Amino acid sequence: DAEITQSPRHKITETGRQVTLACHQTWNHNNMFWYRQDLGHGLRLIHYSYGVQDTNKGEVSDGYSVSRSNTEDLPLTLESAASSQTSVYFCASSDGRWHGYTFGSGTRLTVV
Amino acid sequence: AQSVTQLGSHVSVSEGALVLLRCNYSSSVPPYLFWYVQYPNQGLQLLLKYTTGATLVKGINGFEAEFKKSETSFHLTKPSAHMSDAAEYFCAVSETGNQFYFGTGTSLTVIP
Fold first, then answer.
1. How, if at all, do strands B106-111 and A42-51 pair?
2. Taking the mean position of all CA atoms in its chain, how far away is CA B76?
3. Contact criterion met (CB < 8 Å) for A98 and B32
């Protein structure tokens, strides 16, 4: 069965370190998204991609970057982790045809 | 610009009572509307969606929602709440099918 997986599920890192969160999907979806979820803010879009070599900034992209070298993966990198980036991160994918998003199970990141 | 407003960040109902979660949207074109459910420590799952056709749509677990263009609403209902319905619910809107805009979520508590 097709799936979307995120790793790790939990991560603790120190302020200033570079961190990469992985997202891998086997749906063959062109569209992939990264969101962060925080109390009182719901889901906020960080970055998204509509295909290989395509990346776009979302509403809260500062301090984050992504790259899309193949259809299956969209890793999210925190260049220099800050305590404000403590959050739960969700990856999602879609085929852009009204089927909605398929979400990963999330990565809980704590920056200390 | 697209946006979603979910009235009530927390809703409590008694087991067996009607569940009503409110969602209002803003869109410059006929929108496509979605409800997602998030159980604790899990990703989001698609509950139901409206794309075209019948304005009353049925989803999983006995939930349904009605698209009312004149009221720009897409409220989620369930006739009789069950303990297993306790979760976070998110409404989302999309104009293109490529990107979705989420509300801030409503936490549903079911009281035995």
1. unpaired
2. 5
3. yes
Residues 6+ apart with CB under 8 A from B88: B37, B38, B105, B106, B107, B108
Query: Buried b / exposed e across A72-87, counting CB within 10 Å, b at 16+?
Result: bbbbbebeebeeebbb
Q: In whole angstroms, what is the distance from residue B75 CA to residue B11 CA?
A: 13
d(CA A50, CA B55): 30
* pLDDT tens, position by position, B13-53: 999 999 999 999 998 787 899 999 999 888 899 999 998 88
For A6-44, how does the pLDDT look when each residue is reduced to its tens digit (9 = 90+)? 999 999 999 999 999 999 999 999 999 999 999 878 899
- Mark out chain A residues that contact chain B at CB-CB < 8 A: 31, 33, 35, 40-43, 45, 48, 50, 90, 92, 94, 96-98, 100-101, 103-106
